[in-house]
Structure formats: structure tokens, C-alpha cells
Design goal:
152 residues; mainly alpha; Retrotransposon gag domain-containing protein
Amino acid sequence: MVSSNDPVLSNYSAFMNRFKQMFSHPGLEASAEEALCDIQQGSQDVLQYITRFRQLAAETTWVERTLVTLFRRGLKEEIKDELVHSTRMEDLRGLMDQALSFEYRLQERRSEKRRSRGSSQPSTSQAYPHRSEEPRPPARDIEGEPMQVDTT
């Protein structure tokens, strides 16, 4: 219990530490640390990966440098490939923003490729001009009568 004159009430950090000691699950930090070591983006988009990563990181006391390393390691290969060509971010927020930006640009490029592939192949309307929907009248000879073909 906390008494009204307890110094923990005047210091937010001390209050939060005491609060966690009293109400947190004892193995929560250890399980969050283990999950952070194994986390992978997989088929998630970057935003989903960031959300899960932040949830786990909030349960640890790890320094930012460690979190940056783990976050980078868990990204999809195509995002890591893009990171190679840019300034190396040493802060977690900057790296997360960079990963989001790269994912967006990669998605834009894929959409652009799909559109250009679709427009490079002639559509059926371009390849085969529309024919009139009206039926053609039967062929007539010069006098305007239908032709008679003798079968004998």
C-alpha cells in the first residue's frame, strides 16, 4: 500500500515502477523480450509489424539501439533491400518511418507495373473493331432481287 505522504506519489517514474511491481505479470517482461527476439514481419504490412513490435517493446527495459537492431532484423527482405540504399537510421522512430515509406513506394511501383502491363496488351476493342449490331441485308443482284442459284 501507499500512504498519502509516500514520495512515490510525487515522482511519475517511481510511481509507474511501483505500479508495475504491484500489478504486472511477473513473467511479462521476459516473454516480451523473447517475442522481440523472434518477431518477423512475415506477411503483415509494415504498420501491423510496427504496432506489434511497439506493444512488445513497451514491456521491456531494452535500450533503443537494441530495439532498432531487432526491428530491422524482423523486416521483410524487400524492405531491408531498400534500407541498404538509404541513410542508416539509428533511432527506432526514424527506422519505422523509413520502412513505412519504402513499403508505400514499393506498393506504388507494383501498381504502376500492373497498370502498364495491362495497357501494353491491346484490348479486344482495339484488336477487333466493333461490328455493327444491325444484321446486314441479304446480297442482291443489280435489279435488287435476291440471287437465285441453280442447283441443276
